Amino acid sequence: MAHWQGPKSHTGAMKEDGNSPEIFGYKTHSCRKALCIAGYILSCGALLLLFYWKPEWDVWANCIRCSLEEADVVLLRTTDEFRIYSRKNVSWISVSALIKSRSDYPATAEEDSVFSKAIMKPSLQVKSIQVQKIRYVWNIYAKQFQKVGALEDHHTCSAIHAKFGSGLTCNEQNVRRVICGPNTIDVPVIPIWKLLIKEVLNPFYVFQLFSVCLWFAEDYMEYATAIIVMSLLSIFLTVYDLRQQSVKLHRLVESHNNIMVTVCRNKEGFQELESHHLVPGDMLVLKEGKTLLPCDAILISGQCIVNESMLTGESIPVTKTHLPQADNFKPWRMHCAEDYKKHVLFCGTEVMQTKADDRGVVKAVVLRTGFSTAKGDLVRSILYPKPMNFKLYRDALRFLMCLIAFAAIGMIYTVCVFAINGVREVVKKALDVITIAVPPALPAALTTGIIYTQRRLKKKGIFCISPQRINMCGQLNLICFDKTGTLTEDGLDLWGLLPSERNCFQDIHSFSSDCSLPWGPVFRAMVVCHSLIVWEGKIQGDPLDVKMFEATNWVKLCFIEGQGSTHATVVRPGPKASRAPVKGVIIIHQFPFSSALQRMSVIAQEIDGEQQVFTKGAPEIIAILCRPETVPSNFESKLLLYTAKGFRVIGLACKSLQPGKQSTNLTREEVESDLTFLGLLIMENRLKRETRPVLEELSAARIRSVMVTGDNIQTAVTVAKNAGMISPTNRVILVEANKIPGSFSASLTWKPLEESKSEDYGSLVSQYHFAMCGKSYQIVAQHFRPLLPKLLLNGTVFARMSPGQKSSLVEEFQKLDAEEECDFQALKVAHAGISLSEQEASVASPFTSRTSSIACVPELIREGRAALVTSFCMFKYMALYSTIQYLGVLLLYWVCLGNMLNWMINMSVHVSVSFTGAYPKLVPYRPPSQLISPPLLLSVVLNILFSLSMQIFGFVVVQEQPWYSKSDIHRYVPFLGLWVTQNSPSGTGLNHTIDQLNYRADQQLQSYENTTVWLLSTINCLIVALVFSKGKPFRQPIYTNYMFILVLIGQLGICLFLVFADIDDLYSRMDVSIVPRWVFFLLPEAVIENRPLWLLLKKTFRYHSKSHYKRLQRALEQDSAWPPLNETFFSDSVAISVEGNMGGHSNPTFDSSEDAL
Fold first, then answer.
1. What does R_g of the chain's alpha carbons equal in angstroms?
2. Model confidence, pTM
3. Sequence-distant (≥ 6) Cβ neighbours of residue 948 within 8 angstroms
4. How far apart are CA 628 and CA 106, in angstroms?
5. How far apart are CA 98 and CA 1009, in angstroms?
6. Active site residue 711
7. Across the chain, what does the average pLDDT equal?
8. Per the residue annotation, which of 432, 482, 711, 817 is the catalytic one?
9. pLDDT, tens digit (0-9, with 9 covering 90-100), for 584-620
10. Cα(450)–Cα(452) distance, integer angstroms
């Protein structure tokens, strides 16, 4: 929302999804607007185009500042490093037709609702703006813009049941629909003409249009036509890609907007209507059968089983329970804490089954509609991606600014010289210099290179929706991996069961043996303590639950009627099950798994037996919930034994309920207390066969791997060791942070996870890895913020991490100048997120792999490095190409010969240089990421000096030839048309006919210098293209690019033919020799691009990287007291609030909950 500061302030802050853009109020000024319209006309639209690029200039020119309350135009500015402006017009919504009398007004909404506070009296209008598909209305009492399309957060659990349990009245629903807008996620397919106009209005293409018009005016037909063809090809490929994405996104959301739903109207009963009429506060009735949810809704009665694969990427049924009727003053989300989403049905998910309770039908209150929903937020993250802050693109702009500065100098120089010599059309000739120095083909060349890389990735099963991120993949130096399903197999295998009786562990039961598990409390827990469902004849649910239940050989049957109208589930022994003294067990009530609580529970009853509670979850949590006398004394050592072997361990517990207690009235805290410990269920999660080779390849390339998982920390460390993330000789240090009870401070302890095999810890000081859990990470971020970068520098295993903590961790790594890749939840935050799933949630990821293994990671890095090197090659080539032509032009002041060959060189190099593929091996260093770096600048400067010296050499030497004549060369060159003109020199090198040489007719000069300098420049460009086309170590050898080699050989052959061919004895009379100069280019390039040489120079001059990551690494290497092993630190009483940071950039309406057991 926007917070308006003071009655006359024109600024505020709009808070949305963790980002808080500033908002400024403006009012349109008629006189200013009239002057701007005149400026549009007088500038032939140039001023309008400038305002299109700079919307803040448009607002500043047309409007005057005012308060937000008086504003008809608002200007938004992001608070990140980009500080991007956007203009929004204020619109008015009339509700007068719906409020016909004063008595109708209070009935439109409760007094504390934003809907009643936004309606202005007596006009009955609502002031609103729309920002990134979200509507905001002006709160006339709070003097701020507030978001609509969602139920207010201040409602308590009891208030939601009381105010919305009976539904809205028809009038209330109509007013809310007008103010909120339709409940649709409308993403129309963008017409091709709109995409085309938007692409053409890019500043680069506008400059190309200016250049082409200038060339056509001077009859530079060939090069102008070539640039038009190349630009049209680039625009076509870009528009085609954008159109495909638009169609894909439209198909993703089109099914959401046309669904028939049943709602409950206050005093009017049930009604059928289309889903786009839904508003926040509506009472939605969920019927039996498969249903696609058109909105986010809070379940207030009954129970649902939904498929959330659209949001999580995992087709695992999730149980949703109704919101409790807690009678307290806490807002409902604060009361439910992190488990609030267990009561929320998210838009786009599929309701598979519904279970009614004693209140009859299953009901849900509409929480959010349209783009405010979970699915709407997913779509918005695609429509409005976070801007990329990549050094290459920042340096590219600086590079262009330098070229423009050089062009300005050359233009002034040209104007002065031509004015002194009395040459006509000085302005046109001077503008030519700009089109020489600033290469107009640069954006087309870079786009072509990225598109070819994207096609190579597609052939390897890697799909990209953000092509600009391909270059960023070339700089990745840290990869964050999820564990389950990414490094390890999706499925789990039961390994064994360690039962506990009378405070002692019994003999372990192996599931691989033929011996069946005997009937008992542990067996009953495995039979009922799960969230499985039978869907379409198959048992579906979490893989862990499926494996556990299948091991019992029992079968799950359909629902049976319980007390009143409630439903329960019964399970019975199957044909292969061992004999049991019961006919079956009824699952009466379920408390679903909670990632915050790290456990789940069920209330079950044997047929004709007593009710019992069964709980399973993280062993350390289960042990706390159990009566101490039932937990074995060697519990911790046994748990460490199996987790250290990489097993996934689940704790089991139970207790009997007192007869006569109504199970549905019990709270979760009452159910999950005073339990009896039953034992440990041990499961094996095997590594994928591709995991270890890929991680070894990344390690050899000095690319760091980090594991971020929801599993047990010891299990995660073992998997990291087995996968090769942690060497057997390295020490793992556990970082534990805890809040001190009764105070606001916290403690931080470093201790070895296991005893070191080496007595000399000092020898291993640089070979250690930190491991921490999500709770410790959050406490460190709050209380020990200065230590967080030091911990991340060697942090390898992060366990028990919530989705919000994963996103926060990725952002903290980015602050260390490290680029990351992660899975699903942090994909939108990472520089290059890779999804290994083809579910709908993967559309938010920049990259999606068809194969579900991490083998795609090195492939993406290889192609990213090749694309990045290609981009640098194109920048260097374009810089030298423009400079060579630029210097030649300023040297001669006349137009050159050979226009056809020059544009052929430029265009063919652009297209063919991108054909070179990626080198198959990852080397242990990355390509440069900065254009403004000593090697690159030195390379360009030295090549420019060589080019200039050879041009001057040719210019001078040709004048020393015996046949040289400054005034009379008609007898030598009539066929070449080498009439020296006073035309402005042009990098296009386009010929002018003799008819165009209409000035200084009495002194028509013809020049040997033109011919010499042009031939030298042409061959120079070919050599530069060859020298800059790097092969190893990031791209394949240049000779593998057959197209590029054929292009260079063909063009060099044409040049040599023009130099040495004997056409009517003309060329033999010229006797102009071209010095073979490839040695001069290869020698400096070989020296400049010599990595060992630069490393030696850095070491000699003690140059150190200014990267925060490197500086911190050097500081810790010199700190003998780091890490502080077996020490405890205490924080101050002041903690840094990171609540927004922990989930600020994840989906604000949904967080996936990886099974943290």
1. 36
2. 0.73
3. 887
4. 58
5. 84
6. no
7. 75
8. 482
9. 888 888 888 877 778 889 888 888 778 889 999 989 8
10. 5
